[in-house]
Design a protein that fits this description.
There is one protein chain. About 4% of the residues have low confidence. The two termini are 35 Å apart. The chain is of the alpha+beta class. The strands form 3 sheets. Strands 3, 6, 7, 8, 9, 10, 11, 12, 13 and 14 form a 10-stranded antiparallel beta sheet that branches. A two-stranded antiparallel ribbon has the order 1-2. It has 6 helices and 14 strands.
Length: 534
């Protein structure tokens, strides 16, 4: 009936966890049962006292009736005695002038009657006194019972109000539990949707990174092609200039030959005319070749202009992509940096350590050419942010941000406290997470087991190194299920909750140490809740 339940209560400060253990649920049910029992006991007591009051009232009425009968009998006896007292001296024989002395036996009988009457009256007086005392006691008890009845009625009213309030509270608690469970399902759904969106964004980023590399390669090829076309155009212009110079030379030679033609002899005229014809044909061929080169030069100029426009369009597209992904990377980087900073760790120090732990890289430096200054600066900025984002994502995946127990309550916090054994002030270098004995203790983050065994007052303890100088400890375990040197994944089983070592009850002493110095694990748990919320 009483299963382990967790309630996630989210407000403006974050998400808080309320755990309803079987013990708490059983205590709440027992309290409700006790309240119902008190109400039923009050109702039974009130019924019994009402019956007792009715019995006492009947007895009191009977006593009053008996008292009235006895009073009538006493009054009759007193009247009879007085009549005898009045009539006794007047008894005398008829016709005698003086009274006769009563006889001794008559006097003795009369005295006996009077004595009996006096005794009976005394008995009646004593009985009447007893009846009056009983009547007074009955009146007193009746008044006390009436007061008790009033108190019981008030107590019954209060108990009924308490019962109604308890029932209302239970209904409200049930409604709150249902709402919290619904909110938990919604939060889980949002978390799964966010995780899916994140995976889709990472896939999209990888795809766009591939597209970016393709665009870069295409741009490089395009620039090479433009350079080739420019070089060809330059060679064409050089050839055109050479042909023009040769044409001028040929025209000059033709003019000189025509001037010489008038002075030569008739015998050599035919050879000269043939040479002039050859020169004219060469000149015409040179002119046609010049026109062809001019046309080719115009086509190449148009192609260079189109390629330059296309290059400008590609550069504008790249600038927009760089700006968009730089903004996205900056937002993601700010959220991760805030999460890491909530743990109390220095972000820049972690990044430096992570860069030292990365795989060794090398090779000769070959500067990239063909990038405009604006695009090159944006690309370098985006590359730096993406490198930092990837490093912090790796760091975040190795930080102990989740609790080692699925259900728990914090029985002692980090910092200064009274020692539970000697009552003296001491430094508590972790937090105590209490729960049911035998619960599975999980690894708060992936890492390597550097200790698994008994360690003084810690009892059975497991220590995990997560990298970057961060070590988590899990003490007072009942059983250890890992070995030293073993690699464990996130939420991997380490052992069972227990009470070994210097401990006053079943719990897990959870520590986090950074470079050997203790850190408050609650900061890491709050950072984990913030990351889960985001």
């Amino acid at each position: 009936m009483f299963r382990e339940r967790q309630l996630l209560i989210r407000d403006g400060d974050g998400v808080r966890t309320l755990r309803l253990t079987p013990r708490r649920q059983a205590l709440a049910a027992a309290a409700g049962g006790i309240a119902v029992g008190i109400v039923l006991a009050g109702l039974g007591t009130l019924t019994w006292q009402n019956a007792a009051l009715h019995d006492r009232a009947a007895t009191l009425a009977q006593v009053r009736d008996t008292r009235g009968v006895l009073a009538e009998r006493i009054d009759a006896a007193v009247a009879h005695a007085r009549t005898l007292d009045r009539n006794l001296p007047a008894v005398a024989p008829a016709g005698v002038g003086r009274p006769l002395t009563p006889r001794a036996d008559d006097l003795a009988a009369l005295k006996g009657v009077v004595h009996r009457i006096a005794e009976r009256r005394a008995r009646l007086d004593r009985r009447l006194a007893n009846v009056r005392a009983r009547h007074d006691r009955a009146e007193t008890q009746l008044a006390r019972l009436q007061r008790r009845e009033t108190d019981l009625e008030a107590e019954l009213t209060e108990t009924r109000d308490t019962l109604r309030a308890t029932s209302s509270g239970r209904e409200n608690l049930g409604d709150q539990l249902a709402q919290t469970l619904a909110e938990l399902h919604r939060v889980r759904a949002r978390y799964q949707a966010a995780a899916a969106e994140r995976r889709a964004a990472e896939a999209k980023l990888a795809e766009l990174s591939g597209d970016l590399e393709t665009v870069r390669a295409g741009r490089t090829a395009l620039r090479k092609k433009v350079a080739d076309v420019t070089e060809t155009l330059s060679r064409t212009r050089s050839q055109r200039d050479e042909l023009l110079a040769e044409r001028e030379k040929l025209a000059s030679r033709v003019g000189r030959l025509e001037e010489t033609l008038g002075h030569v002899a008739e015998a050599g005229k035919t050879d000269l005319i043939a040479r002039i014809g050859d020169l004219r044909e060469s000149l015409v061929a040179a002119e046609r070749k010049t026109k062809s080169y001019r046309k080719r030069n115009a086509q190449l100029s148009q192609k260079v202009t189109a390629l330059q426009k296309r290059l400008e369009t590609v550069q504008e597209t790249q600038s927009g992509l760089f700006s968009h992904y730089t903004t996205q990377a900056r937002n993601s980087l700010a959220a991760i940096e805030k999460t890491v900073a909530m743990t109390g760790l220095d972000v820049d120090t972690l990044v430096k350590k992570a860069r030292k732990d990365r795989q060794n890289l090398g090779g000769p430096f070959v500067p990239a050419s063909g990038f405009p200054d604006s695009v090159g600066h944006s690309a370098q900025k985006l590359d730096r942010q993406m490198q930092r984002l990837r490093i912090l994502q790796n760091v975040l995946g190795r930080l102990p941000l989740t609790p080692p127990l699925d259900s728990y309550w914090v029985s002692s916090h980090f910092g200064k406290r009274r020692d539970p054994y000697n009552g003296r002030w001491a430094m508590h270098e972790g937090i105590d997470l209490a729960g049911q004995p035998g619960l599975t203790v999980h690894a708060a983050a992936p890492g390597k087991v550097v200790h698994a065994g008994w360690k003084g007052g810690y009892g059975r303890m497991v220590a995990i190194a997560h990298g970057y100088g961060i070590v988590s400890r899990y003490a007072h375990l009942k059983k250890i299920t890992v070995e030293e040197g073993q690699s464990v994944e996130h939420r991997g089983a380490l052992g069972k909750l227990g009470n070994t070592g210097r401990s006053t009850g079943p719990h897990v002493h959870y520590e986090i140490r950074v470079e050997g110095e203790p850190a408050d694990p609650m900061n890491f748990l709050k950072a984990g809740k913030y990351a889960f919320k985001k």
